[in-house]
Specification:
Length: about 170
């Protein structure tokens, strides 16, 4: 396995949340706020919305399938830049159920009420997977490669009002 050396210090955010519907809702709000603080809502609107959906699905899975009484889940976001991939947004949700690993369904039942979250995550992100955590926990992660932000084409001078025809 090769390890990439980041070109910059990663921007990151980590929070421990209750494994309840309220904890999942808080996770979604924190993700929106952090991604907005990093400017992704403006510079990378499609990855911004994909990330919010991924966070919602992973948090829902953590409180549904990864819940252990008295233990919460950990939410982590990081934004790093490397030579090989450029800028990458990584979303991680860790829960205390290391014995229940997520599996991408191979067959979908059209009217099923559950089982579509990982398919959605797989479609929205560039990579996803799981990492075991000590002692009996797991981290489910997803990564989005962010394209280079478009350069600002308008300069402050170009935004100024045009010269009036009466000006000398």
């Amino acid at each position: 396995m090769t390890t990439e050396i980041p070109l910059d210090n990663p921007r990151s955010h980590t929070t421990l949340l209750a494994a309840t519907p309220k904890g999942a809702a808080t996770c979604r709000r924190l993700a929106r706020r952090q991604l907005t603080d990093w400017g992704l809502h403006y510079t990378h609107t499609e990855p911004f919305h994909c990330a919010l959906l991924i966070v919602a699905e992973l948090a829902a899975n953590a409180i549904t399938h990864g819940r252990v009484a008295g233990r919460g889940f950990e939410f982590h976001l990081s934004l790093t830049t490397s030579v090989r991939r450029g800028t990458t947004l990584r979303i991680e949700i860790s829960d205390p159920r290391g014995d229940k690993l997520p599996v991408l369904p191979t067959v979908h039942t059209p009217n099923a009420q559950t089982g579509h979250g990982l398919t959605l995550i797989n479609a929205l992100c560039h990579r996803w997977g799981t990492i075991p955590r000590h002692p009996n926990s797991k981290t489910v992660w997803a990564e989005l490669d962010l394209p280079e932000a478009p350069a600002a084409t308008a300069t402050p001078d170009a935004l100024a009002a045009p010269d009036s025809p009466d000006a000398p």
